[in-house]
Structure formats: C-alpha cells, structure tokens
Amino acid sequence: MKKWLIPVIIIAVIVIGLYSWAKSFNNTAVTLNENIRESWGNVETAYQRRNDLIGNLVNTVKGAADFEKSTLESVIQARSEATKTVIDPSNITPDQLAEFNKAQSGVSSALSRLLVSVERYPDLKANQNFLKLQDELASTENQILTARTRFNENVKPYNNHIKTFPNSLFAGIFGFSEKAYFEAVAGAEKPVEVKF
Question: Taking a C-beta distance cutoff of 8 angstroms, is the pair 83, 114 a contact?
C-alpha cells in the first residue's frame, strides 16, 4: 500500500464521519422544530376557539339583559387586542411570548369580570345558551392549558438538542436558536379576588 493513500483514507473517514454527524444533528433539529411549530399551531387554535366563543357569549349576554355596557366593551376590546398579536412559530422569542401572554391575560381578565357581573342577572344565569357557552368556555380554557403544556414539552427536547455539546457548535451555523417557554403571566401566583 502506498504511503500517500493512508492520509487520504484517514481524511475521507473523518469527512464522512463529520458529514454523518452534521446530517444527523440537522435532521433531528428540524424534526424537533417542526414538533414545536405543530404544538404552537395547537396553542393558537385553542385561543382562536376561545375568541370565537367570546363573541357568541357577548351576543348572548347582550340579548338576554340590559347589561353593563362598559363590561361588554372591555371584553370586546381585549379580544380585539389579543387577535392582533401574531407570533412566527419558527422564531419564538421570550419577548414575543410575553407580549402574547399579556394580550391573552387581558382577555382572561375581562372575561372574568363579565362572568362575575353575570351573577347579578338571574335570568341570564338560567339562559340555556349562556350556560352552554359558559361550559364550552371552561372546556376551552382547559384545552388552552393542555396546548401550552404540550408546547413547553416540545420546546424542551429541542433546546436540549441544540444546546448540548458538541451540537451547540453547529446550531448557529445551521440557523437553529433557542426557543422560549410559555411562562405564567406576572401576578398569576396571587389568588384571584372575587367581589360581588
């Protein structure tokens, strides 16, 4: 065997090994990133369902009682603000998630005020359409929680994959960056005070 052939074989083996590792890293990161995109789509779908139900709930409340106009307007305004916040699932940053969370917490807050003020209207509380919408809204809130939890569950393996060594060396080269987790809204740890 010729002496010059040994270094060529060693270099070829190293190049093939690096190519295989880089290909494996990239393909795994792409798969994990697509899981995040899918779970983010599920989060948006759950919030969209809530926004659709809110419109029906507001119309039911309007038709059933001479309701506090300011309460209904705050719900409509919060819903409008929440639908303006759009996030690109391929580049989710902590700031974007914080903005999205803030908009959605405004909806939750306005909706809570609406449901608390309904207590003063016995006819509305007995309205079957209202009760059905209220149940669907509670179910949707559970779907939102589940979707957000699954989103975080998909972010973790992706972040672990791109942040561990030696993958972290190539993450930037391939254009992969850390994704943000959904976090509780500021003040969520405090109990909600309900006043009638």
Answer: no
> How many residues would you count in the chain?
196
Take residue 177 and report the two structure tokens written for it. 């960056």
Please state, in angstroms and rounded to a whole number, the distance separating the CA atoms of residues 68 and 124: 13
Six-digit token string for 149 = 């939890």
Q: How many helices (H) and strands (E) does the chain have?
A: 6, 0
CATH of the domain at 15: 1.20.1440.20
Instruction: Quote the tokens at residue 48.
Output: 């969209």
pLDDT tens digits along 30-86: 999 999 999 998 998 998 888 888 877 777 776 665 556 667 777 777 877 777 777
Q: Is residue 193 part of a domain?
A: no
Q: What is the number of structural domains in the chain?
A: 1
Domain membership of residue 189 (yes or no) is no
Helices (H), 85-127: 94-117, 122-126
Domain range for 21 is 5-174
Is the residue at 180 inside a domain? no
State CA 27 to chain mean position distance. 24
The secondary structure of residue 89, as a DSSP letter, is: G
Contact 140, 53 (CB under 8 A): yes
Inter-axis angle of helices 94-117 and 69-84, nearest 10: 160
Residue 194 maps to a domain: no
Interatomic CA distance for residues 91 and 33, integer angstroms = 10
